[in-house]
Fold this sequence. Notes:
Distance between the termini: 69 Å
Strand order of the largest sheet: 3-11-10-5-8-7
Shape: elongated
Structural class: alpha+beta
Strand content: 35-45%
Number of domains: 2
CATH topology of the largest domain: Immunoglobulin-like
CATH architecture of the largest domain: Sandwich
Amino acid sequence: MAAKSIDKKPIVDEISLHRKGWIIQRIGWCLMFAFLIAALLGLFGEGPLSDKKLQSGNISVEYERFCRYEHGMKIKLQSSQENISTVSIPQDYLENFRVGEIVPEPSKQVASAGYIHYQFEGVQNKLITFYLSPLKRKTVRGILRANANSFAIKQTIYP
């Protein structure tokens, strides 16, 4: 029996193609690393890049600039001197959230002029926390009012 001859073709090393692949691979690694660092810092919610604090008079507001869809978040209002008697939030802002709980509970809620006005009574109203859950994926803006102070808040809600 005669042995069959196999055509042996020379293997061509395309080094330039390999180098391009390596460069693309390194760029991909850098992009993944940058994405991971941004996530850890809070660009997609809960972190130093997301936490925002606004001050007006003796009242401050703390909230997350970057939120996730249907993931709980909170808005904290705190006064250093006087009690917070009224908090007003735009109705079109609140349409994007489900209000879970308000601590302390308001004594009265009134809707007028495009705002929901929450009224608080008592002596322990220096810290008020609204627990919210985003219902839509979008950027939301609103002017929140506490007593006579106004705060322009902007939040981006990710999927």
